[in-house]
Amino acid sequence: MFDFLHRNIxxxxxxxxxxxxxxxxxxxxxxxxxxxxxxxxxxxxxKHVNVDIPxxxxxxxxxxxxxxKTTLLRTFNRLVDTIEGVNIEGVVMxxxxxIVTAGASELTEIRRAIGLVPQRPCPLPMSIYDxxxxxxxxxxxxxxxxxxxxxxxxxxxxxxxxxxxxxxxxPANKLSGGQQQRLCLxxxxxxxxxxxxxxxxxxxxxxxxxxxVEELFVQLKKDYxxxxxxxxxRQARRIADHIIFMYLGEVIEEGDADQVFxxxxxxLTQRYLDGAFS
Amino acid sequence: xxxxxLKDRAAGYLMFTLTISSLLLVVAMGIGLYMKAAPILxxxxxxxxxxxxxxxxxxxxxxxxxFLMGTLWVSGLALLIAIxxxxxxxxxxxxxxxxxxxxxxxxxxxxxxGLPSVxxxxxxxxxxxxxxxxxxxxxxxxxxxxxxxxxxxxVLGVMVIPLLVSLFIEIFSxxxxxxxxxxxxxxxxxxxxxxxxxxxxxxxxxxxxxxxxASRVMGETIAVIMVCGNLAIAPGSLLDACYPIPALIxxxxxxxxxxxxxxxxxxxxxFILFFVVLVFNLFSRLILKKIKE
Lengths: 278, 293
Known about the structure:
heterodimer, A: alpha/beta, six-stranded mixed beta sheet, 22% strand, B: mainly alpha, MetI-like fold, 11 helices
């Protein structure tokens, strides 16, 4: 069923030269947190979180509602800044840069290196083509031919090219929900991030689109490190390589998916996996 | 039929009637003004009335060209001043400022929007008119009393800023937060987000707000009477006096009865204003529909 994904990714042309050139992607860059605590309006949302996101794997953050999954995810690209009264303590490192203390110009580069696939598909109010080219343009890539190549490459990478190649310049919000979400994925990929954050990115999609996006993540992990918040344990079981289990703002257990699912060290994890609470 | 169903239906009819009657009122006003203006339209052709510059009611000469130009100059200048300032203010307040700033500024904007226009007129007479006479005009080597298009434009512009800012803020706040986050997540700055996403998304709404402001500006009476100079000559520059249509009507309504056709002429002026605002609104709606498609 998902043969087309393999074909598209493996048979597509070389990556557009310019992209690789403009945004170097050091292979050893790691994303870690040390004693990360977050308070919103004085209330602790994350408590002393230490995690280490492995490279080229799918890391799923699981846990009951309100446990801080999304906040942790949004700290990685500092989108928590948009909440008023937020106070961050501790350290989040991307390579040798501390994300928590990054200034405005460093922040745009960090956000470039850590892409986000939103919860609900939200194409920008522009054409399909411009949705992909937008990220490149704001980071200073210009030139019709370069952008054409980038747009085609990444639309192929998400299996959308054949569906939209005849209407690249029509508004992106005319696409179906699943297509929009793949477009959002392509939009994030087009600026060559090292990490991809996905905040329940399949929860607003129908089952088939959801599987398509899920398969894409699996395909993409050879080039990207993916961090995913998910509410569905079944999805985590299907695709996760690494699991972070959170409860009430704390990381209870972190480890290899196989180990966490089959031999959890912590009783709370076992109870959550058994569906004792959610 | 049960009591509550009856009540529901009655309320529905009542609200429907009220809504329709307000629509009919617009039509009735248009017809009424036209009928009052009919005598002068019998004596002079429409084109003559609109294109002739002589305004001598005693000699039966009614040329509305100066008033039409007066309204257009002052309104145009006012919008030219108000739109960029309001836009930047609204962008600052919705996209950049801390919520503390907003909590402080919003009530002030509401107060400014609610001030009677006569206060803006007085402010214009005391501050803007002398400024034009003593500083702005000499600076370009001109000599005026200060009662000019420039003064009118500034006063009207300042007057309409609170309205425009409130409308723009309302429109910008409606843009989904997710959309802003999506572009921040790509590494866009706030300005890039504003320019490429917020402004683009809200363009039709912004146009509608501007049309509303323009209608308000064109109809404003008291403030322009006080600062525009009220000379029935089509202005040739910002430093000439002018006589916008609303000022003409308000100034002359008391004395019109003694002269033949004068009442009809003033009603015709009102009709022009009514018509311009109406056409302006309908036309902009048409354009917006085209843009949305």
